[in-house]
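Quick one:
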Amino acid sequence: MNYKLGYLSLIIPLVAFIVAFLIPGILILDYVHVLLGVIWTGTDVFLGLIFFIVMSGMDDSIRFDISKRLIPMILFFIPGVSIITPLAGYELSLREHIFKFDILFILILIISLILVLLSLVFILRYALFINKSLDKHAVSLKMKKISIVASIQLVLQISIISLMAYIVVFI
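Output:
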């Protein structure tokens, strides 16, 4: 399996975050945080909704082939961005002096932690299984589970986006 794109999907966001972290001010950090968040949310829309619907009508062998081609990106991008995006958001809130230990920020921190755990405990574990497995039916079932977890992440991401918008507009 070709992991070059998978590695790049982890390295590019990580380098972007490090550069944004090292540059003073909020412009670049805000850009990196928002861009990574949008790409991650778009990935979850694809995996959780579109992919799930399209894949449900396919034969196991076709699902197997498609899943194997997606795995390098899923293995590296989703876990990486699920850590980098909240870190960038946290640093951004500190730089903008809007972080407070109130109910909204505690809720955002809890949801962020849940997102990281979903990525590392479920998506990464299922992706590692798919990467090693040759059982077409088992791979198909694990990919379905990844789609379900991606759908849950999507709902949580929309919740965080809503909370962040509320904080920016009203606080």
